[in-house]
Amino acid sequence: MRKFQFRLERILEIRRYHEREWELKLAEITGKCILLENQIVLCRKNIYDSLGDRSVAPGFIDMVFFIEHELFVAKMKQSILEYSKELEVRNQEREKVKEIYIEFSKKRKVLEKLKERREAEYYAMQRKEEFKTLDEINTSSLTRKHLLWE
After folding, report:
1. pLDDT for 25-47, tens place per residue?
2. Entry pTM
3. Measuring CA to CA, how many Å separate 46 from each of 34, 69, 77, 86, 128?
4. Which structural domain range is residue 94 located in?
5. Is 7 exposed, middle or buried (0-12, 13-18, 19+ CB in 10 A)?
6. Is the distance from CB of 127 to CB of 59 less than 8 angstroms?
7. N or C terminus of the chain: which is more exposed, having fewer CB within 10 Å?
């Protein structure tokens, strides 16, 4: 039995390549989004941790420390704001890339389904032909036996 050969195999390979390319782009931009989310979490943690660092001798107020702390908290809040804006932009980019990836994925899946269908049809036809050939061989051998007995 001959092996099935899909005539559109080269196109299928190209579609797989494009799908993989967009999958990598999606992974890259998702990684950037995760990094920004982690930066936001880290800034919030720094603010929370800094609240516990106010340990000063009882009855003593260190104004320099309070000013520095307020500046630090303001800097962290500004960083959170910047990271949030950047994250919003990256999430929009990610959605666009995701849509393109899904489109390429659908195109590949359609062609793979066609290949599977054609392959199944091909092997079904091959089995029918094989059965037909075996049937002809059996019929001819039976006819020969009948001719010999007569």
Report:
1. 999 999 999 999 999 999 999 99
2. 0.73
3. 18, 11, 10, 20, 73
4. 9-53+62-110
5. exposed
6. no
7. C
